[in-house]
């Protein structure tokens, strides 16, 4: 994706761009780049995996671990590797969003561990919102 602001702008709080907005924009990018012959349920599953992969990478974990975690078959593995080669800007932006939310929570008086848990809970909340492709 391309933005009119940088991840540093997000971290510094110069723009208000959060998990919901990121997920919305990632979904739009996903829709534009996938062949339309897939069934909606399969596209929704693939989008959920792409979002989870970005989150996984943005939290400092490795791609190979993610691939093992989701039990990728050869088709899914090939798909994930293709997406992975092009997702660095998305991962960087998502990392900035997560960092900003953690900082906001800490600045509001939350202990760091609680701030991290709050971000994980927000991620779970965001990903539980149904999407339609």
Detailed description of the structure:
The protein is mainly alpha-helical. It is 71% helix and 0% strand. It has 7 helices and no strands. The longest helix has 20 residues.
The profile of the biggest β sheet is: none
Distance between the termini: 18 Å
Shape: globular
Query: How many extended strands?
Result: 0
Mean pLDDT: 93
Calculate Rg over CA atoms. Answer: 15 Å
String of helices and strands = HHHHHHH
Structural class: mainly alpha
Strand content of the residues, in percent? under 5%
What share of residues is helical? over 70%
Number of helices: 7
Uncertain residue ranges: none
Main traits of this protein?
7 helices; mainly alpha; 133 residues
Task: Map the helices and strands.
Elements: H1 7-11, H2 19-33, H3 40-58, H4 63-69, H5 74-86, H6 88-107, H7 112-127
Helix pairs in contact: 3-6, 6-7
Task: Describe the structure concisely.
By secondary structure, this protein is mainly α.
